[in-house]
Design brief:
Helix content: 40-55%
Number of strands: 12
Strand content: 15-25%
Largest sheet: 6 strands, parallel
Oligomer: single chain
Distance between the termini: 54 Å
Structural class: alpha/beta
Shape: elongated
């Protein structure tokens, strides 16, 4: 039985440098100190690391750039702290490499055309893909680009080869189980978009938790991950189910809208209606009351996507990664 070959991460750990530094040394890139280069070369020799030959042969053809493509053309995108935190994580790892980052909002035909031109001209070595929807034409664009693609999240159609995701289903289930443990019985949910894997997974987590507790799962209103969408859906829930005593809202942005509507309707939180969100963006700490929510490691989502793409470009075959979530208890539930 042959032993497993060492990975890029193990070389980096032995050399005491970042994975990006190892990649630069292996691919004969510049901007590496002599001390770091010697440490990497010693670690490579000691561990017997053999870079992927095909990847090495492509090194001279690389442009030294990767794309973060987001399936959105909303000008208010960067007001959404979820995306801001993802980009923070992406940038943290990019700074360890000599790669440049191109950011493209690619939900519109114009954005997709721009990405197509970049990929056809070999202007990027790889793509990170975020916020993909079912049957999203952006998926076909990157598939035709013939470059490595790492997904942030999964698609509803088939699992991609490389992806980083959070435990959306398990996190949602934990949120609802917490509400049930508080004694709430008329529990509703405001879902995310059901043409996105995250939206579907969080809805399924809600349904699993109430079903296991023998409760009804019909108190449902569909949202779009925006604050306005959360407010509109919550108003609909209250109109259709005035007995509502708790609501799991599938994003913190929507939960902020839900809290606004509950306040307008004269419902106290958490006295009349307990509220739990999802994400734990900065907003969750400053709502009135502060939001109990499911924390997913958003910055880590961005950094692990980038780290995975760097490893793929170095010739490795990383496995998909599911990041854990955790319940953060504040005043809203």
């Amino acid at each position: 039985m042959t032993s497993r070959p060492p990975t890029l991460d193990e070389v980096a750990l032995r050399a005491g440098v970042s994975v990006g530094t190892v990649s630069r040394v292996i691919n004969n890139r510049r901007h590496v100190s002599q001390k770091a280069r010697q440490a990497v070369e010693s670690a490579v020799a000691e561990l017997g690391y053999v870079p992927n030959v095909a990847a090495r042969s492509l090194a001279s053809q690389r442009r030294g750039a990767v794309v973060l493509a987001i399936s959105s053309d909303d000008p208010a995108l960067f007001a959404n702290l979820f995306f801001a935190e993802v980009i923070t994580g992406v940038n943290a790892v990019m700074e360890e490499t000599d790669l440049e980052l191109l950011l493209i909002l690619a939900a519109s035909e114009r954005g997709r055309d721009r990405l197509t031109r970049i990929l056809q001209s070999r202007g990027a070595d790889g793509v990170m893909l975020l916020a993909l929807r079912e049957n999203d034409p952006l998926a076909k664009v990157v598939e035709a680009g013939n470059v490595p693609v790492v997904h942030g999240g999964r698609s509803l159609e088939r699992p991609p080869r490389w992806y980083v995701d959070a435990d959306n289903r398990g996190g949602a289930r934990e949120a609802v189980e917490y509400l049930i443990a508080m004694g709430r019985r008329a529990i509703g949910t405001v879902t995310g978009p059901l043409d996105m894997h995250a939206g579907v997974s969080r809805y399924l987590g809600f349904r699993e938790a109430v079903a296991l507790a023998g409760l009804a799962d019909h108190r449902v209103a569909h949202g779009d991950f925006s604050e306005l969408g959360g407010a509109t859906a919550t108003a609909r829930l209250l109109d259709e189910h005035p007995d509502l005593d708790a609501v799991f809202v599938a994003s913190d942005a929507m939960a902020a809208g839900a809290l606004h509507v509950l306040r307008e309707r004269g419902r106290s939180v958490p006295g009349d209606v307990a509220v739990v969100g999802f994400n734990d963006i900065l907003t969750a700490r400053h709502t009135q009351p502060a939001l109990t929510t499911i924390r997913q490691p958003i910055v880590a989502l961005g950094s692990e996507m980038t780290r995975m793409l760097v490893r793929v470009l170095a010739g490795e075959e990383p496995t998909p990664l599911i990041l854990p979530t955790e319940l953060v208890i504040r005043e809203s539930a």
